[in-house]
Amino acid sequence: MPFKNEIEVDWKSYQLNPEYHNTNNESVYDYLSRSKGMPIEQAKQMTKQVVDMAANAGLSIDFDTNIPANTFNAHRLIHLAAKHNLQDLAEEKLFEAHFVNSKNIGETSVLIDLAVEIGLDKDEAESVLNGNEFAEAVRYDIYESQNLGIRGVPYFVMDRKYGVSGAQPVQAFTDALTQSFTEWKETQPKTTLTSLNKNDDAVCDENGCEI
Question: Is residue 143 predicted with pLDDT exceeding 80?
Answer without folding.
Answer: yes
